Amino acid sequence: RGKRAFIAGVADDNGYGWAIAKSLAAAGAEILVGTWVPALNIFESSLRRGKFDESRILPDGSLMEITKVYPLDAVYDNPEDVPEDVKANKRYSGSSKWTVQEVAGSVKQDFGTIDILVHSLANGPEVSKPLLETSRNGYLAALSASSYSFVSLLKHFEVLPDFKRGVDVTGGASISLTYIASERIIPGYGGGMSSAKAALESDTHVLAFEAGRKHRIRVNTISAGPLRSRAAKAIGFIDMMIDYSLENAPLQKELTADEVGNAAAFLASPLASAITGAVVYVDNGLNAMGVGV
Ligand code: NAI
Prior knowledge:
Helix content: 40-55%
Largest sheet: 7 strands, parallel
Order of helices and strands: EHEHEHHHEHHEHEHHHE
Strand content: 5-15%
Bound molecules: 1,4-dihydronicotinamide adenine dinucleotide
Number of helices: 11
Radius of gyration: 18 Å
Low-confidence stretches: none
Mean pLDDT: 96
Strand order of the largest sheet: 3-2-1-4-5-6-7
Number of strands: 7
Shape: globular
């Protein structure tokens, strides 16, 4: 059988998750996505109405098919974790089984297993505040949505039969998206989001060991350059970061989401069968610069 991927964090056609889905689909994978519950209705209706058809076109001219869209809120592991006000919220009560454990269970029930797990989501409610002005709750929320969400997804998906065995020499593959603000000072990437990316990268190492020894699952993260996604626009300084990269990176071209998608497809493929625990930069080389010229 062909490989099957579950991509958490797709709610429109602008972000890295969508581009990764396309690259994996172009390589022959079946695509399942997890969409944040509050964004689910608009994403599904836009898909149905053909709003994304142009961006669904694959290199061979066919359209990417998304086999199933699962509602997901990666901040909650199981129904017992969900506070009453969220349960009662109209946007949430209209969907069901959207905690991480339930989504993994539904995927297992619907398809048996997956081969590739992608985490392309982040959220930091206080991202526009400097770290020194970030509240404890804001900081913990950033880590919960952006870092622990990966631990939780891997933990609940690692038990699926072929994901843990691997259908070929590659074994199961998991990938997340990180940002260089984890290791260098990027003023404006606040609210504990820099801390959350540092945790995500550190966890990439530890989880590569744990999931590798246990199930031969590979765990890698892509440190991506700036992209004008919905999430990035919400932070507010994305155009400045794109200009900065254009001016200072070794490769002076705008980074496309497809370039990150292609790197993810490589990391998920047998071509990368010995790569795990890696932070792979897909940023036109900006990370390697010391001073701008
Ligand atoms: P995006 O807006 O396309 O993706 C973020 C997704 O996370 C959205 O679909 C949102 O609905 C979802 N999400 C938020 N909270 C969630 C939750 N609790 N449960 C489930 N889904 C939730 O934006 P983008 O930028 O493509 O983000 C994808 C990943 O790429 C993130 O990890 C981001 O930090 C990372 N990244 C983005 C860069 C950029 O410049 N855009 C640069 C480097 C990394």
